[in-house]
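help with this.
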Amino acid sequence: MKVSNETKVGALTIIAITLIILGFNFLRGKTILKSGNFLYAKYADTKGLIVSNPVFINGFQVGAVFEIENTNQHLTEILVAIKLNEPYKIPLNSVATIQENPLGTNSINIVLGDTTAFFKSGDTIHTSPAASLLGDIMNTLSPLGKKTNEAITSLETVLSNLNTVLNEQNKDNFKTILANLATTTEKLNSSIASIESMLEKQNGSIAKSFDNVNSITKNISNNNEKISSIINNLDSTTKAIKDADLYTTIQHIKEAVAELSIAIKKINSGNGTAAKIMNDGEMYAQLNNTIKSINTLVDDIKVHPKRYINISVFGKKDKTSPLVKPLADSATHE
């Protein structure tokens, strides 16, 4: 049987339209045969939720909205079919909430419960009122706004108390304090400038001090050999003193001092000739007269030798009177 071209074109058109419809529904998450894992959620307001919107658990997409249906003519309850990608174990006390996103696509967020019993395909999950991103922001900012109002009220109270405390006299005192603070700040700036000038690398006093220290260190470094020679000489002198048996010499000196002390004690005690000469004035006078007589005799012999020596060479015997005192050149105590 021969098929006309018109029949072929019509059949191809029908097939193409069918494939387009099936592909569009597939992209929206719907298939001709309703198979897979499904959960159902009932909402009073779906907030513009549409088929193929994602479903998340802890930020991970586990499925999509498969179908949205009205359960009564009053539109008070809307049934949303959720198709899961896999048979996930979702606890029975989990809650599905619609998340509004004014800048993007709305979605369903499932908050997991803590029971050990899990949903089966076809069960209905609990829901809660739809939440929005703007609503979450406002809920977050609400306590902050309350605290801001409380802070403003407290600030007003503080300012009121401050105005009460700051009378005219206190205001003048406060001005004086600020003036003194300005003066102190100026002096502090001057001190800081002085410190900076001291710390200046080239002309600062600290820099000059370090230069002097460096110069002294350099001189010491340059005279290391002389210092070493002095130390060596000092070592040699110390060794010579040590080798000289200084201890024995000191012991001899101590013995000599002890003997001298004994002799001085004897002299002071009045025993012996030396003690009598030093302590007895009469004996000193007699000794002095004896020395004077000896000097007189010696001078007389010099002047009149013939009186004591009778030799014809000198002529006649000298009969002049003898000297009664020594001559001036030989007298030592006249």
